[in-house]
């Protein structure tokens, strides 16, 4: 099944949708065969040196190659598509990117190399000092797809272990409510717009700048008769789309008077929309959001400024 072939179906409240035909075809899965290679020796990985855990095979979860000193990877019947197999030990890691068609794929090589520690430092924007009550100890650095977060030390330093050569997406979790990530750089790379690319040797430091002078939106949501609409879903989305910047997508539910306040917004251009009856998580789906974008209200968010807006809920 190829998700790119899917089509959106518009189902209105109380409506019955008919005439939807789904064609089902039998797909021959491909057999995968390969080995996990110890890049420090050039031979198959020997699990006498510690267990190796791999992931990336659809439906397989995390798995260990069977057989001591064989490093064998063998999976039958994998559907066509693009996969990335990642394998880790306590000190080594590697990956292999594979495009699967209907033909079997053999001679896969996942070469393990010493894991990388990525150093960095977080600073607070001098133009907007952190409030006395702000708790910076909860901020964590995450490099996806590494399944761990790294705490920030009291001096702002951090070191993210367990990385391999490749591309990563940097995000921060645990930011205080009135803070946003203003800048993120790794050498000449702007990490707000680009991936963090790592080679076997790290030559730069991740430099993060957090500001406590964000923008905000104060909105009131009404229905078609201009009456306040409690319970409406309000979403603020960057415009144009920035799918890598999850932190720029925000939502809230209107209170009993139809009011919503969204704080901690990074300066930039957005659209704000409100729905009378939409699942709280549905707006994250691009295919659901895209048909409504032209009906949203354009916003330009500035540091330290709260924008007021009145929204008529979409149906």
Biggest β-sheet: strands ordered side by side in the sheet: 2-4-5-6-1-3
Fraction of residues in H or I helices: under 10%
- Report the order of strands and helices: EEEEEEEEEEEEEEEEEEEEHEE
- For the record, give the distance between the C-alpha atoms at the N and C termini, rounded to a whole number: 32 Å
Q: Kindly report the average pLDDT value.
A: 87
Low-confidence stretches: none
Our estimate of the beta-strand percent is 35-45%
- The number of strands is 22
- Give the biggest sheet: 6 strands, mixed
CATH superfamily of the largest domain: Immunoglobulins
The CATH architecture term of the largest domain is: Sandwich
General description of the model:
The protein has three domains: 85 residues, Carboxypeptidase-like, regulatory domain (Immunoglobulin-like, Sandwich), CATH 2.60.40; 96 residues, Immunoglobulins (Immunoglobulin-like, Sandwich); 98 residues, Immunoglobulin-like. It is built from one helix and 22 strands. The strands form five sheets. It has a six-stranded mixed β-sheet with strand order 2-4-5-6-1-3, with no helix packed on it.
Short description:
The chain has 315 residues and is mostly beta strands. The protein is 1% helix and 45% strand. The model has no long low-confidence stretch (mean pLDDT 87).
């Amino acid at each position: 099944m190829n998700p790119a072939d899917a089509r959106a179906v518009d189902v209105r409240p109380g409506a019955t949708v008919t005439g939807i035909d789904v064609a089902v075809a039998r797909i021959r899965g491909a057999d995968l065969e390969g080995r996990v290679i110890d890049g420090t020796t050039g031979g198959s990985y020997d699990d006498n040196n510690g267990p190796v855990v791999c992931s990336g095979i659809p439906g397989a979860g995390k798995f260990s190659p069977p057989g001591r000193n064989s490093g064998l990877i063998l999976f039958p019947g994998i559907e066509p598509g693009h996969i990335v197999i990642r394998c880790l030990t306590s000190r080594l890691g590697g990956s292999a990117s594979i495009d699967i068609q209907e033909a079997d794929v053999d001679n896969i090589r996942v070469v393990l190399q010493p894991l990388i520690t990525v150093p960095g430092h977080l600073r607070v924007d001098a133009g907007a000092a952190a409030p006395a009550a702000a708790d910076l100890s909860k901020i964590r650095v995450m490099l996806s797809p590494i399944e761990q977060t790294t705490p920030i030390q009291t001096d702002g330093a951090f070191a993210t272990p367990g990385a391999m050569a490749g591309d990563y997406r940097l995000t921060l979790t645990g930011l205080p409510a009135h803070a946003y990530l203003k800048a993120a750089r790794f050498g000449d790379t702007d990490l707000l717009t680009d991936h963090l690319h790592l080679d076997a040797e790290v030559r730069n430091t991740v430099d993060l700048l957090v500001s406590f002078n964000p923008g905000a939106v104060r909105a009131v949501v009404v229905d078609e008769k201009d009456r306040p609409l409690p319970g409406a879903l309000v979403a603020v989305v960057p415009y144009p789309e920035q799918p890598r910047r999850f932190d720029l997508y925000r939502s809230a539910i209107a209170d009993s008077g139809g009011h919503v306040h969204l704080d901690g917004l990074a300066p930039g251009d957005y659209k704000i929309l409100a729905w009378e009856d939409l699942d709280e998580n549905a707006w994250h789906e691009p295919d659901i959001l895209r048909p409504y974008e032209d009906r949203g209200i354009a916003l330009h968010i500035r540091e330290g400024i709260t924008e007021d807006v009145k929204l008529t809920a979409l149906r």
